[in-house]
C-alpha cells in the first residue's frame, strides 16, 4: 500500500470509532487524523526489519489502547501490519 492509501485507511477507521470506547482517553476528536507515514528500516548484524509507522495527531502519546485498536483494525481490514504512534 502507498502512504496515501494507508493514511486514507487509517482516517476511515478513525471516523468509524465509537467515541464511548475511548471516553476516558485524552483525544481531540475534532482534529484527530493520520498526519504522516514513515517508512522505517532497522538494520542489525543478522536481520533487517522494515515497517510503516503511522503518526496520528491530536491524541495522547501515552494512549496505548487507542494505538492497539487502530493497528488491529487496520490489519483486519487491509491485511497489512503498521506501527501506530500518537502525538499532540
Give a nutshell description of this structure.
The protein has helices at 3-15, 64-78, and strands at residues 33-43, 48-57, 83-87. It has 88 residues and is of the alpha+beta class.
Which key terms come to mind for this protein?
single chain; 88 residues; alpha+beta; Alpha-Beta Plaits; three-stranded mixed beta sheet; 2 helices
What value does the average pLDDT take? 96
Radius of gyration, CA atoms, in whole angstroms: 13 Å
Total domain modules: 1
At CATH level 3, the topology is Alpha-Beta Plaits
- Structural class given helices, strands, pairing? alpha+beta
Biggest beta-sheet profile = 3 strands, mixed
The count of DSSP E runs of length 2 or more, i.e. the number of strands, is 3
The number of helical segments is 2
- Supply the CATH class: Alpha Beta
Overall shape: globular
Descriptive notes:
This protein has 88 residues and is α+β, with helices and mostly antiparallel strands. The chain has one domain: Alpha-Beta Plaits, CATH 3.30.70. The protein is 32% helix and 30% strand. The chain has 2 helices and 3 strands, in the order αββαβ. It has helices spanning 3-15, 64-78, and strands at 33-43, 48-57, 83-87. Strands 1-2-3 form a 3-stranded mixed β-sheet. α1 packs across α2 (64-78). The model has no long low-confidence stretch (mean pLDDT 96).
